[in-house]
Amino acid sequence: MATRDQTRVRRPSLLALALVTGIGPFATDTYLAALPQVREALSTSSAGAQLTITGFVVGLAVGQLVAGPVSDGRGRRRVVVLSATAFTAASLVCAFAPSAPVLVALRVLQGLVAGAGVAVGRAVISDSHEGPAAAKAFGTLAAITLLAPVIAPAVGGLVLEVADWRAVFGLMTALGALMLGAALVGVPETLPPQDRQRGGLRALGARVADLARDRAFAHPVAVQCLATAGFFVYIGGSSIVLQGSLGLSSGTYSLVFATNAAAMAVTSLAFRLTVVRLGARTLRRAGLLTSSTGALSLLAVEIASRTGAPLGAVWPLLTVVVAGMGLTLPASTVLAQEAGRRSAGTASSLLGGSGFLVGAAVTPLTGLVGDESVLTMASLMVPGFLVATAVALAPDLRRRSPARR
């Protein structure tokens, strides 16, 4: 509710929330370098190995869609604690998966429970912060959370140097236990009983319809989904493309991925420092233009090179693509969550769930196309970023003056 008295709830630890909301990126990125091992060990195809990523992303999407509305009616803290507990158990079971289909199913379950924490973590910020304070809090959370993809590939690569892919899930189990402890200590209940939204499916449908009709909410969600389409082509395809087409080792690939993620963390920190002065919409435009420029440049370089561009050209352009997302994602979150404050959990679930459903749809595309080249990956990345940029710019062109928030 926009009029909620923020003094009635204790503000959560942003570090604890970062652990809760960062579990999704960490569980994805730690595992990416293991995809070639999974393909060989479980006797599956590249597309089959990528489905273990897709399954997790689908789970993340559905988990957010379910948990956000539940937390609007039942409160935030219990959902976060249950999410952390279930993630720990699911990660342990994944380590013993005997086949690719079983691993895909378990990854869906793991994603479901991780998604609950991601959605509710954003809602907790909306409960306890408002206006410029909320924008800064989302920026801080994004900067901390994005340390996960910086650290995760390097950690995953180190694990794979001394053990096989199953050990990665052992690491996730330990992280889940840490997340549970952080939730118990640092995430208070931020939605008082008198502010909770009761009712069954009909009431939920009414809340969803209300948000969907609100252009101030639907527009940033649509922009984020389109940008996510381009971004998840990179997430899902980079491991197989860079290790296969360019011959990178798992350790070198982890270094490339971590460097790109570090650039994203830096731009998200820049968002936090400048959002009050420049506005979320301005920073979102900057992020989308940056990613679009990087993706188009990568495509042009690949087309111009008859034998494929070297790593020295591919790496910096991918860094530009990923860096732009460090502005786009937190800006879209600020705009959508502020517009959807009246139903913060449901708004968070729609924002995150729809984005991850799009991500799940595009993650296996590079493997399904069959030509596992940088050119293919770049060709699949470009449309999402260009359309997202066009949609983000169009309202401002009609108004002739940028909306500031």
TrEMBL record:
<keyword id="KW-1133">Transmembrane helix</keyword>
<feature type="transmembrane region" description="Helical">
    <location>
        <begin position="104"/>
        <end position="125"/>
    </location>
</feature>
<dbReference type="GO" id="GO:0042910">
    <property type="term" value="F:xenobiotic transmembrane transporter activity"/>
</dbReference>
<dbReference type="InterPro" id="IPR004812">
    <property type="entry name" value="Efflux_drug-R_Bcr/CmlA"/>
</dbReference>
<keyword id="KW-1003">Cell membrane</keyword>
<feature type="transmembrane region" description="Helical">
    <location>
        <begin position="221"/>
        <end position="241"/>
    </location>
</feature>
<dbReference type="InterPro" id="IPR011701">
    <property type="entry name" value="MFS"/>
</dbReference>
<dbReference type="Pfam" id="PF07690">
    <property type="entry name" value="MFS_1"/>
</dbReference>
<feature type="transmembrane region" description="Helical">
    <location>
        <begin position="374"/>
        <end position="395"/>
    </location>
</feature>
<comment type="similarity">
    <text>Belongs to the major facilitator superfamily. Bcr/CmlA family.</text>
</comment>
<feature type="transmembrane region" description="Helical">
    <location>
        <begin position="165"/>
        <end position="187"/>
    </location>
</feature>
<feature type="domain" description="Major facilitator superfamily (MFS) profile">
    <location>
        <begin position="13"/>
        <end position="396"/>
    </location>
</feature>
<feature type="transmembrane region" description="Helical">
    <location>
        <begin position="12"/>
        <end position="35"/>
    </location>
</feature>
<protein>
    <submittedName>
        <fullName>Multidrug effflux MFS transporter</fullName>
    </submittedName>
</protein>
<dbReference type="GO" id="GO:0005886">
    <property type="term" value="C:plasma membrane"/>
</dbReference>
<feature type="transmembrane region" description="Helical">
    <location>
        <begin position="253"/>
        <end position="275"/>
    </location>
</feature>
<dbReference type="InterPro" id="IPR020846">
    <property type="entry name" value="MFS_dom"/>
</dbReference>
<feature type="transmembrane region" description="Helical">
    <location>
        <begin position="348"/>
        <end position="368"/>
    </location>
</feature>
<dbReference type="InterPro" id="IPR036259">
    <property type="entry name" value="MFS_trans_sf"/>
</dbReference>
<feature type="transmembrane region" description="Helical">
    <location>
        <begin position="313"/>
        <end position="336"/>
    </location>
</feature>
<keyword id="KW-0472">Membrane</keyword>
<dbReference type="GO" id="GO:1990961">
    <property type="term" value="P:xenobiotic detoxification by transmembrane export across the plasma membrane"/>
</dbReference>
<keyword id="KW-0812">Transmembrane</keyword>
<feature type="transmembrane region" description="Helical">
    <location>
        <begin position="79"/>
        <end position="98"/>
    </location>
</feature>
<feature type="transmembrane region" description="Helical">
    <location>
        <begin position="47"/>
        <end position="67"/>
    </location>
</feature>
<feature type="transmembrane region" description="Helical">
    <location>
        <begin position="287"/>
        <end position="307"/>
    </location>
</feature>
<keyword id="KW-0813">Transport</keyword>
<feature type="transmembrane region" description="Helical">
    <location>
        <begin position="137"/>
        <end position="159"/>
    </location>
</feature>
